[in-house]
Predict the structure.
Amino acid sequence: MFERSDDVLIAQALKGKKSAWVALVKRYEKGLYNYALRMVNNQADAMDLMQDTFVAVFKNLQTFRGDSPFKGWLFKVAHYRCLEFYRRKRPMSSIDDVPEQEDDESSLCPEQELFSKQQSSELVNAMQSLPIKQKLVVELKFFQQCTFEDIAQQLGISTNTAKSQLYSGLEKLKVKLNEQNISFDHFSKNINKGEVGHA
């Protein structure tokens, strides 16, 4: 069956075709929800974050210029919504100092092949110990498979900072997983080879 491109669906949605917008939402809602769940580690908050993102994107759909993929724009909006979530949660704290302690986690759908389903779930739990900036970089590089250039653009940082945040975050994850007797060997080999996501 022929699948309409994002650009076609966006053009149709802007002309008032509701089914085109619904198709866009269905295409990305699972990935966006899983992203939100990894960021906030709470199902209700993740659902709210996903819905807020889609509402914001719909309201601003006419501003999408199409010079970069729609998916990147969608997740950039989600990124800002995530930062707003943490600012509301701890308005007097540094964004890097916000602890993530809630554990309302359900298993992720296997989006990556480096870990088994159980290990993926453990990785998500371990990610909650990371500062939000490192968590975002790990999310974008490992789960979304963004390039360092994409990450830098989305987060408004340099590529060197993106790399530094990634490797600092991964080192912390390694320690956290090793503490729980979870193998990090295969993942660490890929890190050393620079094969996490796409360089």
